[in-house]
Amino acid sequence: MRLPTDPTCVLVQMHATTHAETAVYRRMHRHSFGHVGLSQIASVAQSVEARLDEVPARAMKSTQLQLVHSGSLVLEQGGTQTRFHAGEVALYDASRPFSFVYPEEFRTTIVQVPTVLLSAGGVLPASLDARSIGAGSRGRRMLEGLLLGALGRGPGRYPGPAGDPTALSSELVRAARLLVDEELGTTADRHPSSADLRREATELLHRRYADPGLTAAAIAADLHVSLRTLFAAYEGADESLASTLRSIRLAAAERVLLTTRLPVSDVARGVGYADVTAFIRAWKAATGLTPARWRRLRTG
User: Fold this and answer.
1) E strands, the chain, where?
2) Which of 94, 107, 147, 239 could crosslink 69 through cysteines, CB 3.0-4.6 Å?
3) Where are the domains of the chain?
4) Of 19, 23, 133, 122, which Cα lies nearest the Cα of 68?
């Protein structure tokens, strides 16, 4: 299993209970391409419940797309059950409680993307809950083609993802965003240019958050827009450019604090803070504790 390289998009943990009385098998491969998480699963009939309480507090709200290759899927969310058959693609909010039932042997691929990269404000309309994406969707065809090229046709067929993970992440996000835009229609967003610019900026932040020289001017230059245009894109948004970068850096720091014994100063530098004092101040503002004390309380 490859752990996500971006802790703001942590694949939702699931608890499965099999229905089979005969031989039981479960093949699962997880991959991470930047801020996109993927899970390929092949197994017997089972019920699966999302463990949202195990998702880190600072992980971004996420949307999942599930490609049902064989068998079928019954998705329950918000008191409603929706059935998806082989060849269908399910779209649903992975930040709200949900569960699955796979009534028979199945093979599926789950793609998880931070919702903020798909929709302005990081919220998808309720009308997209448990939506089945038709075969005519250009976004769906693009997504399926990318997955086929990167992962092969199913769990265990290929040794692992190929190509540049950062480039593949951007392409997967672009496909998922096109798919969502198609489902919403062209009138869903009154300011698509601002929303697109925010999404592109967020993608860049995910790639370059460890760079201490990452300034608003540098971001604007990379996106080929003026600084004024970049700031204008965030007017009225739920989160500013600076607060988005801070959230991404702190989420990255959380993973390092929990999984290593690196000194706080090294953690700070590794996530883009040239000044350890600034990192400690930002961490304490977010958690109420210094990084060292927070780590002791979490890890003993």
Assistant:
1) 13-18, 26-33, 36-43, 46-51, 62-70, 72-77, 80-85, 89-93, 99-102, 106-114, 131-133
2) 107
3) 13-184, 192-299
4) 133
pLDDT (tens digit, 9 = 90+) per residue, 160-186?
Answer: 334 566 677 777 888 888 888 888 774
CA–CA dist 225, 217 (Å, integer): 10
**Residue that has been written with the tokens 């997880």 in this structure:** 30
* Contact of 122 with 238, CB cutoff 8 Å: yes
Q: How long is the chain?
A: 300
Q: How many CB atoms are closer than 10 A to CB 152? A: 17
Task: Tell me which DSSP letter residue 77 carries.
Answer: E
* Tokens 């996000």 sit on residue: 173
Q: Which amino acid is at 56?
A: P
Round to whole Å and give the CA distance between 74 and 83: 4
- The fold of 192-299 is Arc Repressor Mutant, subunit A (1.10.10)
Summarised one tens digit per residue, pLDDT across range 77-86 is: 888 899 999 9
For residue 201, which amino acid is it?
Answer: A
Structure tokens at 281: 């101040």
Q: What 3-state class would DSSP assign to 69?
A: strand
- Considering the domain 13-184, what is its CATH architecture? Sandwich (2.60)
User: Rounded CA gap, 154 and 205, in Å?
Assistant: 31
* DSSP-based three-state secondary structure for 128: helix
Residue 119: Cβ within 10 Å count = 20
Question: Which DSSP symbol is given to 30?
Answer: E
218 three-state secondary structure? helix
